[in-house]
Amino acid sequence: MKDNKRIPATDVTPRDSDAVEISLYAAREKIHPKSIHGRFERVREVTVWITMGLYLVVPWIQWQGRQAVWFDLPGRQFHIFGITFWPQDFVLLSWLLILAAFALFFFTVLAGRVWCGYVCPQTTWTRFFTKIEDWIEGDRSARLKLDAAPWTLNKLRKRVSKHTSWLLLALLTGITFVGYFTPITDLIYRLFQIQLGGWEMFWIGFFTVATYTNAGWMREQVCIYMCPYARFQSVMFDHDTLIVSYDEKRGEPRTRGAKSRDEANVGDCIDCGLCVQVCPTGIDIRDGLQYECITCAACIDACDLVMEKVGKPRGLIRYTTENALAGLKSHILRPRMIGYGFVLMLMSALFVAALFLRVPAELDVIRDRTNLYRVASDGSIENSYRLEVINKTQRDQTFRLSFRGAEGLVWNGPETVFIPAGSHATVGVTLGFDPFYHTVETGTVWFVMEDMDEQGIRRERESRFIAGRP
Ligand code: SF4
Ligand code: SF4
Known about the structure:
By secondary structure, the protein is of the alpha+beta class. Helices cover 41% and strands 18% of the residues. The strands form five sheets. Strands 8, 9, 10, 12 and 14 form a five-stranded antiparallel β-sheet that branches. Strands 13-11-15-16 form a four-stranded antiparallel β-sheet, with no helix packed on it. A three-stranded antiparallel β-sheet has the order 3-4-5, covered by helices on one side.
């Protein structure tokens, strides 16, 4: 017989009083990193000054009579120290970007996020903004106090001075940025004459606001939430990648205060929290490798200072690898690194070769598409072409123009063309033949451009000749 026992049902529908609403939003806690001195701090100081210095100085460098680095968008030319890139060289610029990506992969596999910690513009500008904050409002504890203090005239004065200084640095950044696209001396002159164009004002304003917001207000949030590199770096890391890490075996169990410690049972970490206070992203490196860590090594400097004070060897937090922390051997040369390194070297060599083998002149041929052919008043049959001749060199040049094609074809147009340095010209020519004396079929013709200074510059372009009959 069937067992008719039934399981009693229980109503598990949550009652309103049980409901707990969990917010997925967490308000940002403002981070005030403490200044620290140490070996890595000195290196960082040098790298950020170099980065900032180069950014501000490069547009002022003159080279062969014009701005050395000038991205002339209206003229469709990029001038970089004597080399002019035209739209036809776009492939070289794409190549350069791919090279930069491979260099980033290579150095990330080798040494983690060194780019982020030492030279990234976000790190650099944030650091200068923090310096200004430090000069005006004082060190970390003074800034925390000022944040918590009620509004007074003194607080207002400090805040106004800080934001004004930030805005001035941001404005300098914006003007310099536009100075890479418009000759900077002319830009500054017109700025003081209040004669800037609409786009120039827009981009100066845009970069001023972007710099002020990113480096003054958002800071570590740009690294944590906006930068894609932080997200995909973990894919490139392996157990031999250099990371900033806390030596848990040595540091744990941590005990607060140096005096009360039983040397036999406690680790070296005295739980002073200094490594957290100096961290620009506000993380605790003792919790393990985190994507927020920009490898700035401030926590290494901080902890080394503490270790020196308590008479312990430096390096409780240090640059190391996961393998080294686990007591295994670290390998610098490993397949992924060799792969990235090989591709990087190969692409660099090919890029340099392409740059030096690049013919510094260009010829484009545009056939007249409105008339396939034309019958001239003397009965000859003609085709019209426009030759676009580009002189990519930094000196004036005269080029010889000619063609190769069927016998009987006659060139009608200038046979030489003078092009100033870094300029271009359009030349109209016709090819034609007299049908009473010659028979020419529709076919291919080649236009040839050669320099007259025996430098070996030669370009040849193919086109069509249409031998229509009246
Ligand atoms: S954990 Fe250390 S290395 Fe990483 S961001 Fe913070 S201070 Fe810099
Ligand atoms: S600075 Fe060093 S000793 Fe102090 S909490 Fe950090 S790891 Fe521990």
